[in-house]
Write a structure and sequence with these properties.
Blueprint: H1 3-14, H2 16-41, E1 68-71, E2 78-81, H3 89-92
Antiparallel strand pairs: 1-2
Helix pairs in contact: 1-2
The structure holds zinc ion.
Length: 96
């Protein structure tokens, strides 16, 4: 079954809106997988950030893509925030 056939089948069976939600969930999981691979290659051991970590972008939480687990390019720590963020909150606020 090709990807397109599968998509059409799922759209027919589950309705398009639900399907789009499912695709977004899958996209999130794929993103997380990719990040975890990156984490492993950087030998960072903490994959899941604390919910109340000061490195998290709490103001992103209500955004559509605001609850991703990212790895800070500076301190290499995991943090929660919008999927496009590359710096944790702490590092972003102490740039030289
Ligand atoms: Zn950082």
């Amino acid at each position: 079954m090709t990807y397109e056939n599968l998509f059409n089948y799922m759209a027919r069976e589950h309705g398009l809106n639900l399907l789009i939600e499912e695709m977004q969930e899958i996209e999130k999981m794929v993103d997380l997988d990719r990040q975890q691979e990156e984490i492993k290659s950087n030998e960072v051991t903490r994959i899941i950030p604390e919910f109340d970590s000061p490195k998290n972008w709490t103001q992103d939480r209500n955004l559509e893509n605001g609850n991703y687990t990212n790895v800070c390019i500076r301190c290499k720590s995991a943090f929660m925030g919008h999927k496009r963020r590359v710096l944790c909150f702490e590092c972003a606020n102490k740039l030289d």
